[in-house]
């Protein structure tokens, strides 16, 4: 990726180094496993998941982060630039609609951290919390994206961040609240509200990529393939085959690999968020 013209975000709450000294988990092992599955699917708004896990609390964190360079500093600065570019892109798109874009707070952390949605943990992967309007990530996830999910490269990482910002866009537009009210008990499943919400966030990530490339010339040879590989790697069907040896569409929360690639591609090809209406689509 070409990052030279990207502006790093200033909307940052850097919690790296403020590591919690232990996390107490209640609700039994089944709840933890359920969260782990959601985590591998790249999570969205974890509010409901966290609330079903019983008592979750973190011990007090250190009050100051250690000084000096860190191994993940390059990932931190990279992420600041990607988030900054999402702010520039979505500010322009919202303005064209007569709306004001309020940026999310980029919040990197180590291991565990308190969030407006409950206790956040690195095992949850990157996630957006609508209660405090923040994108959370333990930057070690980028290593996992490369080694565990087989999706290396900067554009794969950018796709992950842009997807979570896509959830913020949904939150600002009221889509998240509307989906909860509309689907209620039918959030899971191949045709459920959760899948449609996640696929729209994938499409919004593609919208960001199109507009960021138009405005800042970010894409280089091989970048698009990296992003598509990441979208393919985190499909429900792919992850279910890897973890349980079979595919169970009734438990889908994010969509199949083919669906995630298709909606991300639609956003990248059009740059138009009007093309991301997964809720009216008869075929996902």
Strand content: 5-15%
Outline: globular
Cα-to-Cα separation, first versus last residue: 29 Å
Q: What is the averaged pLDDT score?
A: 85
Strand order of the largest sheet: 3-7-6
> Which residue ranges are poorly predicted, with pLDDT under 50 across at least 5 consecutive positions?
21-43, 47-64
Total count of helical runs of at least 4 residues: 10
Sheet with most strands = 3 strands, mixed
- What percent of the residues sit in helical stretches (DSSP H or I)? 40-55%
Radius of gyration: 18 Å
Computed structural class: mainly alpha
Please write the string of helix (H) and strand (E) elements: EHHEHEEEEEHHHHHHH
Counting structural domains, the number is 1
Number of strands: 7
Question: Keywords, please?
Answer:
284 residues, mainly alpha, three-stranded mixed sheet, 9% strand
Give a short summary of the structure.
The chain is mainly alpha-helical and 284 residues long.
Give structural notes.
This protein has 284 residues and is mostly helical. It has one domain. It is built from ten helices and seven strands. It has helices at residues 29-40, 47-51, 73-96, 141-147, 154-172, 175-183, 193-216, 223-233, 236-244, 257-270, and strands spanning 23-25, 56-58, 105-108, 112-115, 118-121, 127-129, 134-137. The strands form three sheets. The protein has a three-stranded mixed β-sheet with strand order 3-7-6, covered by helices on one side. Strands 1-2 form a two-stranded antiparallel ribbon. The chain has a two-stranded antiparallel ribbon with strand order 4-5. The longest helix is centred in the N-terminal third of the chain and has 24 residues, at 73-96. It is globular. The model is unreliable at 21-43 and 47-64 (pLDDT under 50).
């Amino acid at each position: 990726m070409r990052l030279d013209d990207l502006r790093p975000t200033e909307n940052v709450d850097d919690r790296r180094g403020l590591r919690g000294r232990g996390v107490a988990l209640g609700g039994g092992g089944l709840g933890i496993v359920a969260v782990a599955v959601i985590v591998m699917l790249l999570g969205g708004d974890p509010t409901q998941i966290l609330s079903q896990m019983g008592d979750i609390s973190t011990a007090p964190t250190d009050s100051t982060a250690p000084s000096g360079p860190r191994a993940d500093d390059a990932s931190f600065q990279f992420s600041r630039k990607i988030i900054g570019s999402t702010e520039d892109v979505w500010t322009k798109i919202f303005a064209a609609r007569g709306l004001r874009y309020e940026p999310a707070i980029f919040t990197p952390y180590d291991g565990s951290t308190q969030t407006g949605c409950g206790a956040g943990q690195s095992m949850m992967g990157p996630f957006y919390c609508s209660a405090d309007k923040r994108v959370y990530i333990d930057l070690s996830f980028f290593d996992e994206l490369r080694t565990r999910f087989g999706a290396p490269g900067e554009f794969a990482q950018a796709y992950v961040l842009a997807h979570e910002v896509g959830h913020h866009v949904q939150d600002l537009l009221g889509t998240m609240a509307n989906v909860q009210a509309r689907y209620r008990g039918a959030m899971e499943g191949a045709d459920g509200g959760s899948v449609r919400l996640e696929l729209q966030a994938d499409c919004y990530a593609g919208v960001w990529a199109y507009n960021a490339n138009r405005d800042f010339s970010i894409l280089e040879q091989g970048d698009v393939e990296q992003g598509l590989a990441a979208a393919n790697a985190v499909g429900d069907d792919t992850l279910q085959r890897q973890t349980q040896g079979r595919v169970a569409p009734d438990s889908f929360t994010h969509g199949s690999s083919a669906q995630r690639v298709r909606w991300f591609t639609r956003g990248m090809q059009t740059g138009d968020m009007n093309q991301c209406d997964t809720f009216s689509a008869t075929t996902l």
